[in-house]
Amino acid sequence: MQSLSAFFSSLNTFPGLPVELLLSIADFLSRDDVTCISLCNRQLFAIFQLRSDPIPLIGRGKLPFLTRLGRDLPSFFICYQCNVLHRYYASKDFLPGPLFQASLICLSKSLEFSLSSDHPWTHNVSRDSKIVFDFLHLQLAMRRFYYGPEYGISTEDISYTQVRLYTPQSGTQIPLLSSLDAQICSTSPSLILRVQQIMSVPRRKRYLLYRCPRSSAKRSRSPPYNMSICNHEYLHSFDYLLNGVVGAHRAGEKAPSVSFACDRCDTEVLVEISECENELALVITKWINLGAGLTPDDPPWKKHHDFGRATMIHRSPDKRGKGKASAVTASARTCFESASVDSLRARNIAYLKDQRFKKTMFYQPDMVHGPTWYLYNKHR
Fold first, then answer.
1. Alpha helix locations (H) across 125-234?
2. Which end of the chain is flanked by fewer CB atoms within 10 Å, N or C?
3. Helices then strands (H, E): number in the chain?
4. What is the tally of structural domains in the chain?
């Protein structure tokens, strides 16, 4: 017979409560909560198996339940390709990068598809960049923030730098650098990406920095046509903004810049000209808020995948274009508290000086787009 002490001890645990009380508690819980509780042990399963409607076993209908179950199992994450929970283990296979190869077949196939078309699981960091940032990476970065370092990837794991050489005209090679770093905004938990692209040309060839409204096939292979803002940029509007900065420098203005933001996805942008000895650098820096990684249907993530024209809202720039933006649309830039834009720009320009990137980065031949050098956390 069960001892009296053991009996009262069992009452201190949830399964030890009387069945009537357990059923009363279940009346105040959602179907997903009750199902999760029933998975704790056989006794609870027997009590609750007929208490709630069955969970769908196939398709996206079971995602709400998997989301709820995932909160109790931080070592697992939801795979939105095959609608199941996969175990996360601290492996470099899960890190983003130009040679990303997931250990799970479903994720690998998703990434192969994403290289040729935009879809709700992948964010194209920039038109020129080889890096693939999947919703999986957003999930794992936020799970680390919520649960601890053993349950996801760090923002340092997301960092990436790439340089690609273009030959727009005979005898002229132009490097285009693309860098990515990330930070989590703790006030309203979300992952913010900071992307910077730098095109460097000799001072006497400043004309190569312009984007012509009617570009020839030859000019379209020049770096300005591989610099982008978001899915909502209106081509001629972007030409006007970019060419305006280049024109201001031609008119004699020192370090001209302009700050603006997309009114559909809130991507914030700073365009500037930086001088470095005999070189001129066109620098585009953008801040992108991808949200908290709840689901691919989460508005902060989804709005970056909606296509259509948008208005680029100008900011009031002070020195170096640090805009006095409104609290509504400036959250991404103001929450990013890592290295300053000046420090980031100086570091990236140092890679371009004397083609230092060839000595410090990994080389990857590309017969179609041009030779590429890259450096990301997986290879640091």
1. 135-147
2. N
3. 12, 13
4. 2
Instruction: Let me know if residue 109 belongs to a domain.
Output: no
Is residue 152 within 8 A of residue 145, CB to CB? The reply is yes
Query: Residue 12 is part of which domain span?
Result: 4-48
- What pLDDT digit, counting tens, does each position of 186-231 carry? 888 999 999 999 999 888 888 888 877 555 545 555 666 778 778 7
Answer for the pair 171, 158: CB distance below 8 angstroms, yes or no: no
* pLDDT tens digits for range 122-153: 556 666 666 667 788 898 999 999 999 988 88
| Mean pLDDT to the nearest integer, 272-292 | 90
Is 44 a domain residue? yes
Residues 162, 26 share a domain: no
Residue type, 191: L
Write out the two tokens for 281. Answer: 């650098």
Q: Domain for residue 9, yes or no?
A: yes
216 and 345 co-located in one domain? yes
* 77: Cβ contacts below 8 Å, ≥ 6 apart: 70, 85, 86, 88, 136, 139, 140, 143
Residues 159 and 44 in one domain: no
At residue 293, φ and ψ (nearest 5 deg) are: 70, 35
How far, in whole angstroms, is CA 90 from its chain's centroid?
Answer: 20
Q: How confident is residue 285, by pLDDT bands cut at 50, 70 and 90? A: very high
